[in-house]
Amino acid sequence: MSLVVSSPARGVVTVTLDVPERRNALSADLVGALSEALGDLGGDPAVRAVLLAHTGPAFCSGADLKAPPAPHDFVRLLRQVVELPKPVIARVDGHVRAGGIGLLGACDMAVAGPGASFALTEVHIGVAPAVISLTLLPRVDPAAASRYCLTGERFEGPEAARIGLVTAYASDVDATLGPLLDGVRRAAPGALAETKKLLTARVLDAFDDQSDAVVALSARLFGSAEAREGMAAFLERRERPWVL
Question: For the whole prediction, is pTM greater than 0.85?
Fold first, then answer.
């Protein structure tokens, strides 16, 4: 099973990415399972919020290069998170890479712990953060986006909080999540849904305007000779030929 969905705990359902042997990489199967789960939870009146968690040392390592989702399916999942009429809150205490950062950016709030690290590594394997730009760029400081998208550098939880990728960094993730979850539990469900619509309107405008273009760009780059060589080098644990 790639996903574990808990029963509601005072209105909060925990959805856990549970493919630790693949570093919770976004395979076609995992994207499909997460989309199906969110579809069920979005219409459940017993659910006030979704807590997105993970097993193992990685929150999400990005696209599964052996069984990747179709770009349009990944766009559909990101939009589903943004449009869900319940807050989605990420609990991150592991590594987040590439497409995993796009999933994180689609969430309404996120708390990162001391085990979290982040990197936008697309340029290192010959592609670009095309699809994830839809959720990343509205959230992150522009100067930081330029730095980390162009260099692929790794950064840690405190920096992720500073640039706006996560809501907070905390040594005790669950203690920091407590007030966030209590706050949404005290909120009227209808008011919560309408407030989320206000907060995500501009992001959804970007989906409307740019989804087709970023899907086409992603497909073109992943099919390029440069990307084929970059992904082969990554899977074979060897250096890419363009590294100086």
Answer: yes
